Amino acid sequence: MTALIYCAVLEDELEAIVASSPAPVRLHKMPQGLHQDPPRLQRELQAAIDAFESDPQVDTIVLGYGLCSRGTEGLRTARCTVVLPRAHDCITLLLGSRERYAQESALAPGTYWYSPGWNRHHIPPGEERYVTLLRQYQAQFGDEDAEYLMEEEQKWFKTYDRAAFVHQSLGDVDPARTKTQDCATWLGWRFAEIEGDPALLRELVFGPWSPDRFAVAKPGESLKLSGDDRIVEVVDAD
What we know:
single chain, 9 helices, alpha/beta
């Protein structure tokens, strides 16, 4: 039996795929944002893997993640096979391939990505984020320091000029699309809507796991940043 551990950002896409599975798939959803603390992400993913390994019916564990700030490095199993897409983050998974992600990045290097799950589980760049952070800083540091911190916060936005909304046409995407458009208008960025591709996520759940698209670690092996276009490689566990 397959078990799927996945980030909440991908809940719509992966849960729709699992719903079409003729065989049962065990699910474990992780909260969004753990990639901001890679050691914590690694610990919590390993704990979820260990929990599934205690179930003798589970023989394969697939991860709805990319390398994710190297938070998936070092993961290992004692009994099961672990499968990880060759991707840096969830945008590749939503677009369907790292080649398409590279094409989009070359076309518009200043792109910040939005998606239904991303918009739902965190506050993306835009007016709401600005107001929320400003109030937090004012409460913590006072008005003068809050103003300075917000000026610093806004500097990184200058490296972007396009808000790209990627989705796979699941359910009502209009609210997420509108939110992205509003963010783009407030930030002075261009808006683009990009149709995603479920192919990579389908292959993650159902296989086959081609070596050019997935890293497959057997018991006694682990995952590691490859430093090349493979993104992640399989190595012997320490």
